Amino acid sequence: MAIINCPGCMKKVSDRAAVCEHCGFMLGAHDAESLARKARTERSIRVNKLVSQQMLAIVFFVAGIGATFYDWSGSQFAAWMPIAGPALAGASFIWYLITRARIYWLKRQK
Ligand SMILES: [Zn+2]
Questions:
Q1: How far apart are the CA of 23 and the centre of ligand 1, in A?
Q2: If both were cysteines, with which of 17, 92, 101, 102 could 61 make a disulfide (CB 3.0 to 4.6 Å apart)?
Q3: The 3-state secondary structure of the chain, one letter per residue
Q4: How far is the CA of 31 from the centre of ligand 1 (A)?
Q5: Extents of the domains making up the chain
Q6: Taxonomically, which superkingdom (predicted)?
Q7: Greater model confidence, 108 or 15
Q8: Mean pLDDT on 57-63
Q9: How confident is the model at residue 90 (pLDDT cuts 50, 70, 90)?
């Protein structure tokens, strides 16, 4: 009996076990088809996370644009908001583009 790392959760399990005791991964059935299915599931989880990041980037971008055009004069933020606003908008826009590209490449993988 050997101890292997479960492909599902990377915890140590016996190679005799049919199902991982930690995550329920079917160890006995890790043929090409089930591994491919698992890879697809993981990819769609990654895409979902990236889509959430993309939404967050859009929110930050809009906030940055808002801060840029808002009249901060007289407020305690007047000194740095005209710089912080465009900086936030610019950084968010770059973040958005990177996330967009990562989603594109993930979806292209078969
Ligand atoms: Zn497991």
A1: 4
A2: 92
A3: CCEEECCCCCCEEECCCCECCCCCCEHHHCCHHHHHHHHHHHHHHHHHHHHHHHHHHHHHHHHHHHHHHCCCCCCCCCCCHHHHHHHHHHHHHHHHHHHHHHHHHHHHCC
A4: 16
A5: 1-30, 38-108
A6: Bacteria
A7: 108
A8: 97
A9: very high
